[in-house]
């Protein structure tokens, strides 16, 4: 992960994890979702999304946070794909809010 990449930290699956979207991963997110980052953020913030959008935001942000692509895919398969949207949606929004507003979040204790 790049040092200046805004990072969201949250418990996911079985541990606290870092989630970050680097510039390269933003390009990949745009490619796999077929939407520009602004449009994707606008849709997700308005709760107008595809399930795949949520999964890709989380998967790519795990990679940006330091997970290997294989581990990120396995974590998403185990802890996001079959879970209720009420669990995955807030995480995807938090990741994109961190990207959008440029702040680094390390948890509620730091607020």
Strand order of the largest sheet: 1-2
Oligomeric state of shown chains: single chain
Distance between the termini: 23 Å
Strand content: 5-15%
The helix fraction, in percent, is 55-70%
Overall pLDDT: 91
Number of E strands: 2
Give the overall form. Answer: globular
Number of helical elements: 5
Outline the biggest β-sheet: 2 strands, antiparallel
**Low-pLDDT residue intervals, each spanning 5 or more residues:** 107-111
Structural class: mainly alpha
Order of helices and strands: EEHHHHH
Count of domain modules: 1
Radius of gyration: 13 Å
In short:
With 111 residues, the chain is mainly alpha-helical. It contains five helices and two strands; from the N terminus they run ββααααα.
């Amino acid at each position: 992960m790049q040092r200046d990449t805004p990072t969201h930290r949250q418990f996911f699956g079985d541990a606290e994890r870092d989630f970050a979207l680097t510039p390269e991963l933003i390009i990949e997110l745009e490619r796999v979702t077929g939407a520009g980052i602004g449009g994707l953020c606008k849709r997700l913030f308005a709760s107008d999304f595809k399930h795949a959008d949520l999964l890709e935001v989380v998967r790519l942000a795990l990679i940006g946070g330091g997970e290997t692509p294989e581990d990120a895919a396995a974590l998403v398969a185990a802890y996001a794909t079959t879970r209720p949207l009420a669990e995955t949606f807030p995480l995807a929004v938090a990741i994109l809010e961190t990207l959008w507003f440029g702040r680094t979040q390390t948890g509620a204790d730091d607020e």
